[in-house]
Specification:
eight-stranded mixed beta sheet; elongated; six-stranded antiparallel beta sheet; Immunoglobulin-like; alpha/beta
């Protein structure tokens, strides 16, 4: 466990680095008229020379101090008026302090000595709690982004009365008590408030509280769970009529007009999200017939089909999934069956608690597997299939969007075998000998053409990760081209001897591929030479580069663009 770091220790270290009592600052003997020794060996400098040593970029005493714009000015003051230097003067000299990523965990009372401080930035530290008692009353800007605040707590008890900007982004805030402490009573002069990337899940109570801030003009809420709902940002714009900027975007008059009346539809506004996922074209999958042996037996007849699957958030089910590259993958029906079994033994809360105890490899409380229909191999497979997901657990959905999801290209391989001939007549008792012979002949003929398929063998050929974080920052539509790289295999060495022969590869390649595909679809084994396209070259040129396999994905997060859209799109069971 890391030890606590007080803000006073960091500030003291920064101030000591300024060397206010050392050359060229302070009252040392290096100054003319300092009252020190007047011996000839004593070297003295005038004030302008000492100031040049502080400002010259090539001077060893020149330092850029990003933690405060007053740092360099204080060094110059230590040269011009060294007699004024004392602890009170130094602390009162600072107007802005920027202590970022210094592992500060405690804001102590030492900060009160900075009696003229107006801006305090403490981003990316480890502050879990901060008391307003330790903040100078002169403070106008307080930035606490990316700390570990779990509650406003004592910060909201008599905060600096002149505070105009409060940055609380990327903290663990979001409770009902936090909402109750974000009112005009605590922050009467607050103009800008940043609550982005927190955990506020309900927009109505929060916006009701923020509506009491009389001076609020700029508000940042993106990244909170409720901003995923279709009613955002319309509800926020209409509920806060004095607001000028929302999520760093100016609120235009026509936008406010479109959302007019939405804030009064509180009985229709629910916190849910609707996301549509559409799978488009799959391109670049190599022809599976190229891997078949030329002297393969006639049976079984092998057919291939392909589909795209992906994991997506579903808080209502807990699906079993076993997804390993190249391994057999359980189908959606099996996952659903496993989910139903779990539902009989455990309620939803129990299942989620099991996940939290470390069984993420088998179960996931929010992800379920979905797939497109299967289609036969082609250079370009257009699935054009979509699913819409309605989610009511917005906090968990936010976590899902942060981590993204996986997309898989999967292959179904089916082996089909001929039906065996049977002498059983089924008790028909035919008496005609010729009839028996004809029937037996028909059976044998039927057995040759009728094929019985085995259960499909499903293999995950490749996977890719899809990032969805842009949905948390205002984007409503995302078009993604998933790149899986090349799935082509290197041609075997023996194919070189074929290439040296008189067999023409180019003239037969496309025709052979079409014949093979057509005969496979017709449940007949290809009779032409297989593998003739392996190691194919075009007109003596060098081999072409393997084609990259890609899948088109289109995702849309539903947002109401007008107040009239609210009622029809509200789910009946919400």
């Amino acid at each position: 466990m890391m030890s606590s770091m007080a803000l006073s220790a960091v500030l003291d270290k920064h101030i000591r680095r300024l060397c206010l009592d050392q050359f060229p600052c302070g009252k040392g003997s290096w100054r003319k008229g300092s009252g020190g020794s007047t011996e000839a060996e004593t070297v003295t400098e005038d004030t302008d020379t000492l100031l040049d040593l502080l400002s010259c970029p090539h001077s060893p005493w020149h330092h850029d101090e990003p933690w405060s714009p007053q740092a360099a000015a204080l060094q110059r003051a230590a040269v011009v008026e060294p007699e004024r230097l004392d602890a009170d003067f130094v602390c009162s000299y600072f107007r802005k302090l920027r202590i970022v990523d210094k592992d500060v965990s405690v804001v102590d009372k030492y900060l009160l000595k900075f009696c003229n401080l107006q801006e305090l930035v403490l981003s990316a530290n480890r502050i879990c709690e901060i008391s307003a008692e330790n903040l100078p009353r002169t403070l106008k800007v307080l930035e606490l982004r990316a700390n570990q605040l779990c509650a406003l707590g004592r910060l909201a008890i008599s905060p600096p009365p002149r505070l105009q900007y409060l940055g609380l982004a990327a903290n663990y805030l979001g409770s009902a008590r936090d909402v109750a402490q974000l009112t005009g009573r605590q922050w009467p002069e607050l103009v800008c408030l940043d609550l982005s990337e927190c955990n506020f899940g309900e927009q109505r109570p929060l916006l009701k509280a923020l509506g009491t801030l009389p001076c609020l003009r700029t508000l940042v809420l993106e990244g909170n769970p409720f901003t995923l709902a279709p009613s955002y940002p319309g509800f926020a714009v209409d509920a806060l009529p004095r607001l000028c900027y929302l999520d760093a975007a100016w609120i235009a008059p026509e936008e406010r007009h479109r959302y007019r009346g939405m804030a009064r539809m509180t009985h229709l506004l629910v916190d849910w999200a609707s996301t549509t996922v559409r799978v488009g074209r799959l391109q670049g999958v190599p022809d599976p017939l190229l891997d078949e042996e030329p002297d393969a037996p006639e049976f079984p007849v092998v057919s291939y089909s392909y589909f795209v699957s992906y994991t997506f958030f579903s808080h209502q089910t807990t699906a079993y999934r076993e997804v390993v590259g190249g391994a057999t993958v359980k189908g959606q029906d099996q996952a659903a069956e496993q989910t139903q079994t779990l539902g009989k033994k455990n309620d939803k809360e129990t299942v989620v608690s099991i996940v939290d105890e470390g069984y993420q490899d088998l179960f996931h409380s929010t992800d379920s597997r979905h797939r497109t229909s299967s289609q036969s191999w082609a250079d370009d497979i257009d699935f054009d299939e979509m699913l819409t997901f309605v989610v009511r657990d917005l906090s968990s959905f936010k976590k899902f969007l942060h981590r993204g999801f996986q997309v898989f290209i999967e292959q179904e391989k089916i082996l089909s075998w001929p039906v065996e001939a049977s002498d059983d007549t089924g008790g028909q008792g035919a008496t005609d000998k010729k009839g028996k012979q004809a029937k037996s002949k028909d059976k044998r003929k039927k057995a040759v053409v009728e094929l019985v398929p085995d259960p499909p063998l499903t293999t995950a050929m490749a996977s890719a990760h899809v990032s969805l974080q842009s949905f948390l920052y205002g984007h409503e539509k995302v078009d993604i081209l998933c790149d899986f790289g090349s799935l082509h295999k290197e041609p075997p060495e023996e194919d070189a001897s074929v290439m040296d022969g008189n067999i023409s590869m180019d003239s037969k390649s496309k025709d052979d591929s079409k014949k093979k595909a057509g005969k496979s679809a017709g449940n007949k084994k290809p009779s032409t030479a297989k593998g003739s396209r392996k190691g194919e070259e075009r007109d003596g040129d060098s081999p072409t580069q393997p084609e990259t396999v890609t899948v088109e994905l289109f995702l849309e997060l539903k947002k109401w663009r007008h107040a009239s859209e609210v009622a029809p799109l509200t789910p009946a069971n919400s």
